[in-house]
Amino acid sequence: MISHTTGVASEPGYTIVENASLAGRNTFRVPARAEILIDVRRTEALAEVLAIPYVRNNPLLILGGGSNILFTRDWPGTVVCTATHDIRIIDDYGQAALLRVEAGESWNDFVHWSLSRGFVGLENLVLIPGSVGAAPIQNIGAYGREVSQFIVTVEAWDRHAARLVRLDNASCRFAYRDSLFKHEPDRYLITAVEFLLPREGELRTDYAGIAEELAAMNCAPSAATVAEAVARLRTRKLPNPALIGNAGSFFKNPIVAGNVAAELQREYPALPTWNATEGARKMSAAWMIEACGLKGTRDGDAGVSDQHALVLVNHGHATGEQVWALAQRVQNEVYERFGVKLEPEPIIV
Ligand SMILES: Cc1cc2nc3c(=O)[nH]c(=O)nc-3n(C[C@H](O)[C@H](O)[C@H](O)COP(=O)(O)OP(=O)(O)OC[C@H]3O[C@@H](n4cnc5c(N)ncnc54)[C@H](O)[C@@H]3O)c2cc1C
Fold it and tell me: Looking at the whole model, is its pTM more than 0.90?
């Protein structure tokens, strides 16, 4: 029952706040409000929460750490935040183990948990903000690794069937910054993720300066030293959302057909490209944005980071609408010059 004086109700397993501010719940730190915000601390409470008449009859948004979302408006309904916590080994095979992690755990805390217990695999994915429950949504990736390489099962509340379901890796249809969940945002609420992590495995050090960083650190490669090298690289290259609002890379690297890439490379030999899916190439969006002279540009308090051209930032008091207007300007200028359409990586609300 919501108190009329405070607008808050605390139930076993969840808390409801009316007319809640979301400014502290998105890493862009743009202002936005939700008619109702519900923090769910126990998965068993989900059925009850989703059956509340207001929740059933109004738009629903699921929020994790708010590090991949841009609010351009208030949310005219319910925001459900997964606040469940637990990390557990459910099967130990010796050389590897099956782990279950609740959706509300911090991704970076889980990476450190896995490294401190001798597991290998997640070291390149250190320091990515956000929750474990959101990690499968865009199949988070960095420094040559993607989370889908380690996911066995995603447990989710299926809002169509009104029950918990278990999706195996193939059913999640993981791709570059993409998954089934991105295409069915109104269907699945991820409650837990199960990972298979080895205790020994190949390290990925051939990507974006890791080997050079290890050499500078004077360290032999191990899961822990690779994580440290990646953390140092990320800290140098990416603006820290604790200091300046941002959501990491704002645009995906566009994937274009091989012949289009070849033509662009003839015209712009310095444009970095990488192999993508069969016959296609991934192009550096940051390079294209910088070539348009947009790195460090500002429209009021909305800006393109001067540290990394792929990151849009909030210098202080930008609204989500202003950040989105700047994003569209970047898209237009890149399209006019290169004929390539940049797609945003965060969810735009
Ligand atoms: C500084 C910085 C660096 C970053 N670096 C990287 C990087 O290297 N690689 C990378 O891939 N990403 C990166 N990101 C983006 C972001 O950290 C990830 O996408 C992360 O997984 C988002 O988690 P979140 O909990 O904050 O999700 P949110 O922003 O809260 O939500 C993102 C989307 O997932 C949905 N969602 C969230 N939780 C659930 C759930 N439990 N069930 C169903 N849907 C859910 C939301 O509805 C929304 O659509 C970076 C962001 C920042 C700020």
Answer: yes
